[in-house]
Design goal:
30% of the residues lie in helices and 29% in strands. With 199 residues, it is an alpha+beta fold. It is globular and about 50 Å long.
Length: 199
């Protein structure tokens, strides 16, 4: 099948997901259902150091370097939680805020303490690179919410149990998967980039 993509005429083949995490591959596959890409994980031996200062820079860095190394189209995302009262920490260091989800949540709640200002936002940046490493499209999705005092919900991962979305009166960890895909930062970022992948 031949498609047009930002001026390129392509035979839709592989789209390398710039992660070695099978869970991330499955998650991206759910967002990209119906497109004529065959998603594949990057080889584990390819490690990309996230040296960017923003989510967008890190997503572009991962997509570009994986694309150049493999000579194939690549897609990458970078995301994290920004808490206003903590000067937008943990931000790009969200995954490195502790050894596991429990430690990361405990540290965040400890640092926020009894502060009544609990506004926060999840941010996700997505970038797609062509085989030469050029970034041909990117998008960013943001979900506004607040940090609750006690974790609630058993679904999701990461900071989901403490990220509360007032509009739905639920934490990410309490949301059904379909609703979370619709309202989450990652869902919004992929919704914005999909039209760029098919036109």
């Amino acid at each position: 099948m031949v498609s047009s993509f930002n001026g390129y005429k392509l035979f839709m083949k592989n789209l390398i997901v710039a992660t070695s995490n099978p869970g991330k591959l499955k998650e991206m596959g759910a967002y990209l259902t119906g497109l004529d890409w065959q998603l594949q994980l990057k080889p584990e031996e390819i490690e990309i150091e996230e040296t960017g200062a923003t989510f967008a820079q890190n997503a572009a860095l991962k997509a570009s370097q994986v694309a150049k190394i493999l000579g194939q189209w690549s897609i990458a995302d970078d995301s994290g939680l920004c808490v206003t009262a903590l000067d937008n920490a943990p931000g790009i260091y969200s995954a490195r805020y502790g050894k596991n989800d429990s430690e990361r949540i405990a540290r965040l709640l400890r640092e926020l303490g009894d502060n009544s200002q609990r506004q926060a936002r999840f941010i996700c940046a997505v970038a797609v690179a062509n085989p030469s490493g050029e970034i041909v499209c990117e998008s960013t999705g943001i979900c506004e919410g607040e940090i609750i005092f006690t974790p609630q919900g058993d679904s999701g991962f990461g900071y989901d149990p403490i990220f509360y979305v007032p509009e739905y009166n639920l934490t990410f960890a309490q949301m059904p998967p379909d609703l979370k895909r619709q309202v989450s930062h990652r869902g919004k970022a992929f919704a914005a980039i999909i039209p760029k992948l098919i036109h």
